[in-house]
Amino acid sequence: MKISTLSIGDEVVFGEIVDTNAPHIAARLYDEGFKVRQHLCVGDSEPDIIEAVEAMAGHNDFVIATGGLGPTVDDLTARAVARATGRRLILNDEALAHLRERYRAMGRELLQASEKQALLPSKSSLIPNPVGTACGFIVPHKGCFLLFLPGVPVEMKRMLEETVIPFIIARSKRTVAVKTRVLRVFGLSEPQTEEALKGLSRPVEGLSIAYCVNFPEIEVKLRGEGEDEARLQDELLSLESQARGRLGDHVVSSGGETIDTVVSGLFRAKGLTLSLAESCTGGLIAKRITDLAGSSGYFLEGAVTYGNGAKIRQLQVPAELLEKEGAVSAAVAMAMARGVRSASGSDIGLAVTGIAGPDGGSEDKPVGTVFLALAGRSDCTAKRYRFNGSRDRIRAITAFTAMDWLRRHLMALPDKEAGEGQ
């Protein structure tokens, strides 16, 4: 089964946006047991789209394309496909009815120019779009099914799940099952991670390990392929258990979880509350916490105390401590953590202070110097870090490290039910 993907749009070719559609399609197809063999990207050029369609149709069973189905003059996909496949471009009644209903539901007038989205190649099958205006379409050509979807990710994903993947599955004969498990690792480099898992991969048995840097994490992809799906699942779970044993607490999450969802679950399980005091991260940690629904159940407040005056006023950090140790120091970080915990009444207070750059560093405390501190009910600890990279990169890894501190701290505590009897 040969499947390829095609991304259409000047904004992708010119690097104005990152193409997330092609990786998502490839990942979902792999989950279903299919491998994408090739990906091509072309701009909003009718000759280029025609050339790509003709070439890809001759060497694939399915081509999944995204982009160029909108109402503007640079949306050329439908017309280019009609020409490439020798079809007329016609007003599709079903697509037009969908378009009118979507505009009615949005309370907007359907302009004649917008009806362009219903102009599709003749003898094509419609791909319904439950969340957008432009329907997709399927055209058979040269023994290949060409499937065209909008470039808007939220629309593409729904149409991929509800129509495209079932369409491919119904027309394929799969003899090999494919399973994947992803472990997200933090605190080890890619070479260190690979060294830790050395010897676990068993290609002869269809078990392999791949690595991908997704800053600041390392993604460890455990993959299995085989004819016996039940046996493959057991072998993959065994491989995951062995990998976890070697990586230890550097594994922050797996499957669809992130470090943020893990920390959220731990706060719920432990029945504890949190407050934050941020300096160099400027609220990035609080954003990670509050991006998840239900965080109000454990997150009480956050203070962005950028200047010394704010640290003194809001967190009761002694002025003489700031003068003696400097704002970027272990002592001040601990004072910030204790101060925000005291002010909010939370169980845990976490603080971060540092120099994100590009200036402000010194020989003793160069750019990238960061102190984290965590204050609990009975103690307070702090640690110095030295991060590298741009200002954004330093801030990002600082926020992630703070989340990892919370994860590790909470994992060491008893759950709420167990703790209540003590």
What would you note in describing this structure?
By secondary structure, the protein is α/β, with parallel strands linked by helices. The protein has three domains: 3-170, MoaB/Mog-like domain (Molybdenum Cofactor Biosythetic Enzyme, Chain A, 3-Layer(aba) Sandwich); 177-254, Alpha-Beta Plaits (2-Layer Sandwich), CATH 3.30.70; 259-418, Maf protein, CATH 3.90.950. It is 40% helix and 24% strand. The protein contains 15 helices and 17 strands. The chain has helices spanning 10-13, 21-31, 46-57, 77-84, 93-106, 153-170, 190-196, 229-247, 259-270, 284-290, 308-315, 319-325, 330-344, 391-411, 416-420, and strands at 3-8, 36-42, 62-66, 89-91, 119-121, 125-127, 136-141, 144-149, 177-185, 207-214, 217-226, 251-254, 274-278, 299-304, 348-354, 369-375, 380-386. It has a six-stranded mixed sheet with strand order 2-1-3-8-7-6, with helices on both faces. It has a five-stranded mixed sheet with strand order 14-13-15-16-17, sandwiched between helices. Helix 2 (21-31) runs parallel beside helix 6 (153-170) and helix 3 (46-57) crosses helix 4. It starts with a strand and ends with a helix. The model is unreliable at 418-422 (pLDDT under 50).
